[in-house]
Amino acid sequence: MTTLAATLIGVGGTLGGTLGGAVLSQRVTREQNRRADRERAEDRHDRTQETRRDLYARLNTAARAYRAAARDAVWAAERGESVEPIILDTAKEAWSEQYSLAQMALPKDVHQIVATLNLALGVGYSVVKQLPGSPDPDDSRRRAKNWFSGPLSDGVYLLEVALRHDLGVEVEPDFEHTRTRMLAALDNDRRSLERLLASERARPIRSI
Length: 208
Hints:
Elements: H1 3-78, H2 85-103, H3 108-130, H4 137-149, H5 151-167, H6 175-202
Helix pairs in contact: 1-2, 1-3, 1-4, 1-5, 2-3, 3-5, 3-6, 4-5, 5-6
């Protein structure tokens, strides 16, 4: 082998080694970048889920507290005890705040449940506020207790199940059917109660 041939072989080997190293380095860099992208995406997903969990927990807590405050006010009225309005009003404001914060962040299906429950809670508030001036106090208290222990209790339960389902904590296989059925029932009951309350407000007050 001549000196020139040996030199060319050496140069070719060095060049091949350099190119091979460069290609390997590029592959390693691309894999590192892909791994970093995956980790960033997973981190964003985890932060989003954590934020959603916190939001859902506050929303669920506020709904339960609002219902409990209204129900307790009805029971207190039945026992002849004075009702402290600030407790119910505070629970109402806490729910309204969480509802306002959640509206822009909720998925469509969850938002539908929350919006329907918001209307139902509002009717419950009206039920309590109309108790003192009711023409039939016993019947009004019975109706109020039935509302808070029946339809509204089911509505709060539906919210909790929907939130857990959306988070993937408890996935109900037939949830869509259950959600549709319970939402329709809550909305129908709420409308019926609204009409009844409106008719009572429209009655003329009889003078003694």
